[in-house]
Amino acid sequence: MARGRNRRRVDRDPAEQRRRLGRAVSLLLPPLLTVLAIAAAGWLGWRQGVQGDLLRIREIRFEGLSRASAQELLELSPVQRGDHLLLCDTSLVEVALRRHPWISSVEVRRTLPPALEVKVSERRAAALVDLGGLYLVDAEGEVFKRALPGDGLDLPVVTGITRDDWVERRAEVEPLLHAALALLDRWAERGLDRRTPVSEIHISADYGTTLWAGAEGLEIRLGHGALPEKLARLERVLAAVEAEGRRAEVLHLENRRRPDWVAVRFAGEATAGGGGGQRPRGR
């Protein structure tokens, strides 16, 4: 019993308790200080990085601009200089900038020092289309902008589609517009645009395609279908007419019963079946 009481007195000795507490503190203090240091560094980093100016956007740079201006795109952008680099939503920027009629695609990238690099691809106007007013259409057939004098574009005009047709029967008339654009592509592929550039293409569900080309406004009636063959025949006829030093006013390639015939009306003459001797050359 005495020995047990002595042990309890030793256990309750204040000096021993202080030594035990000191050892515990010496073991816990270093990791505690480390945690506090990390927390303090994180707080300072957050304050400087999020609330401070360290990661504020200093510049928004644009690449690929020709028709659109940097100022126009900045006015559309939901992110501006001074916004936080890491907190801005680049996908929203891309969506907003695609609202500009000339912009077809946008790619936004964050860079350091804090800036946004914006790479844009602009549409290429392939023609004008008359829809109760002139509109620009790209090579994919998308009507994307009303034509303005400041656009400075000398392009062929596609006619024959009314605004009501485009709004109410778009699924029916859109293929006609695509066909007109395909004709322009084929015209350029054969090099005809360098000799006789197209000024107007008129498309009609009933009568097919008629175009006007060259400085003198040569009328070329292509009708429906067989476009590659008709263009090859047209090229031969134009070369023959030019070789004779004559000027054609109207070329007919829409004869359905005799598709290999070309009828030519020369300047100052009445219509001549077979092209006034040009039919064999048009085959």
Describe the structure using short key phrases.
rod-shaped; single chain; disordered C terminus; 12 strands; alpha/beta; three-stranded mixed sheet; about 280 residues
Structure characterization notes:
This protein has 283 residues and is α/β, with parallel strands linked by helices. Helix content is 39%, strand content 24%. It is built from eight helices and twelve strands. The chain has helices at 2-11, 14-51, 70-76, 90-97, 163-168, 170-189, 192-195, 227-243; strands spanning 59-63, 103-111, 115-122, 125-130, 134-138, 143-146, 157-159, 198-204, 208-213, 218-223, 248-252, 263-266. A nine-stranded mixed beta sheet has the order 6-5-4-7-8-9-10-11-12, with helices on one face. It has a three-stranded mixed beta sheet with strand order 1-3-2. β8 (198-204) and β9 (208-213) form a beta hairpin. It is rod-shaped. The termini are far apart. Mean pLDDT is 82; it is low at 271-283.
